């Protein structure tokens, strides 16, 4: 295999203000390796810089406030120290010619007070408890019933996202992605399995999407809509999530977002595909959203090329392949074998399973020489 086999995936494209050398997106992946101040470390800078050949990096989910935290050792972007630490990460990526967005996050009900710097009770759209347990600084604990947010608190969280977006630009990020997927706070408002509200934030799809819309508007005003992506997962049951009409919700959200001229819409599309038929939720989004679409969830490079050829998506996000292969793009170009991921080191720990995956020549590179910065990253 060679570039000739994957001309679309390896071909350049435009995304908002950015020129991307390929259509490979590094999907956001939680790694639980921040320090106790919830700052990314020097190892984090190396980790992302190693993978800067991806067309776009989207970082691990990053909380917008102390109250937004849910898990141990996940980074924030609300203190001066966190912003300064992220600046070292973005500088390292940009020195390698890369482009990087930060994923902005509020975990909502998927949280435990032990994991929150302010010790606050988890909140959600409604007081609906998720199933299961969560890992904390004190070991595994059951997930509890969240407190339903008051309307005035919702407005404050909207502003937390806008402030985080401004902090992201100050930290050198090329843009931000709103984490409206995977059962976290924005998703908890979007889907009727968790949103039982009877006020202006509940009931109809329009009302359930109001929280997302207000954040999109506030972030767009703060940094520009062309530096904003949104990730949704309307069909995912992860974190005890459900919706009575995920297809209708997908279409509604995509049409709503289409009005704002955002950089992209990112679909976590878990629907199976035979490789010929586009995945259902990505196709629904394509019909309703005129901007760039990123699709994600278990794609092979062959399936990625097929969906790009079909025109259903414009970019494809890869998770584990990029986690285990810092030079994933070059391996695709050459048709080379991929490293096997070590699942035992996905979450937490030291640099093992983080910085020590070898490049194609068998070498581990934790010291990287700067490369020429590519145009179109302003």
Outline of the structure:
The protein has a single domain (3-345), classed as TIM Barrel, CATH 3.20.20.70. 30% of the residues lie in helices and 16% in strands.
Description:
This protein has 378 residues and is of the alpha/beta class. It has a single domain (3-345), classed as Aldolase class I (TIM Barrel, Alpha-Beta Barrel). Helices cover 30% and strands 16% of the residues. It is built from 11 helices and 14 strands. The chain has helices at residues 42-50, 80-95, 151-170, 185-190, 205-208, 210-223, 246-258, 280-288, 301-310, 320-324, 328-334; strands at 13-15, 18-20, 24-26, 56-63, 100-105, 123-124, 133-136, 139-142, 147-148, 175-180, 228-232, 264-268, 293-296, 315-318. It has an 8-stranded parallel β-barrel with strand order 3-4-5-10-11-12-13-14, surrounded by 5 helices. Strand 3 (24-26), helix 1 and strand 4 (56-63) form a beta-alpha-beta unit. The longest helix is centred in the middle third of the chain and has 20 residues, at 151-170. The protein is globular. The mean pLDDT is 95.
How is the topology of this model organized?
Blueprint: E1 13-15, E2 18-20, E3 24-26, H1 42-50, E4 56-63, H2 80-95, E5 100-105, E6 123-124, E7 133-136, E8 139-142, E9 147-148, H3 151-170, E10 175-180, H4 185-190, H5 205-208, H6 210-223, E11 228-232, H7 246-258, E12 264-268, H8 280-288, E13 293-296, H9 301-310, E14 315-318, H10 320-324, H11 328-334
Parallel strand pairs: 3-4, 3-14, 4-5, 5-10, 6-9, 10-11, 11-12, 12-13, 13-14
Antiparallel strand pairs: 1-2, 7-8
């Amino acid at each position: 295999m060679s570039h000739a086999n994957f001309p679309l995936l390896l071909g350049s494209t435009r995304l908002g203000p950015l020129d991307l050398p390929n259509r490979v997106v590094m999907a956001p992946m939680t790694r639980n390796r921040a320090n106790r101040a919830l700052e990314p470390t020097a190892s984090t800078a190396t980790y992302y810089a190693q993978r800067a050949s991806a067309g776009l990096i989207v970082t691990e989910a990053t909380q917008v406030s102390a109250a937004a935290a849910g898990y141990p050792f996940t980074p924030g972007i609300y203190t001066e120290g966190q912003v300064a630490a992220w600046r070292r990460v973005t500088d390292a990526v940009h020195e390698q010619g890369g482009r990087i967005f930060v994923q902005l996050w509020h975990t909502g009900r998927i949280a435990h007070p032990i994991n929150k710097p302010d010790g606050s009770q988890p909140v959600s759209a409604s007081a609906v408890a998720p199933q299961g347990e969560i890992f904390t600084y004190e070991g595994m604990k059951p997930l509890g019933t969240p407190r339903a947010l008051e309307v005035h608190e919702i407005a404050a969280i909207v502003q937390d996202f806008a402030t985080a977006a401004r902090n992201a630009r100050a930290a050198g990020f090329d843009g931000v992605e709103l984490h409206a997927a995977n059962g976290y706070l924005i998703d908890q408002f979007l889907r009727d399995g968790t949103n039982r509200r009877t006020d202006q934030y509940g009931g109809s799809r329009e009302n359930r999407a109001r929280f997302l819309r207000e954040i999109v508007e506030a972030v767009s005003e703060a940094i520009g809509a062309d530096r904003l992506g949104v990730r949704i997962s309307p069909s995912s049951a992860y974190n005890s999530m459900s919706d009575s009409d995920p297809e209708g919700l997908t279409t509604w959200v995509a049409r709503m977002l289409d009005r704002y001229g955002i950089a992209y819409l990112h679909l976590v599309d878990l629907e199976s595909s035979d490789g010929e038929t586009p995945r259902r939720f990505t196709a629904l989004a394509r019909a309703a959203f005129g901007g760039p679409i990123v699709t994600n969830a278990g794609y092979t490079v062959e399936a990625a090329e097929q969906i790009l050829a079909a025109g259903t998506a414009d970019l494809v996000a890869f998770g584990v392949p990029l986690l285990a292969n810092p030079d994933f793009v070059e391996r695709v170009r050459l048709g080379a074998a991929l490293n096997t991921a070590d699942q035992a080191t996905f979450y937490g720990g030291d640099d093992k399973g983080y910085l020590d995956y070898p490049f194609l020549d068998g070498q581990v590179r934790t010291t990287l020489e700067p490369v020429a910065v590519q145009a179109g990253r302003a």
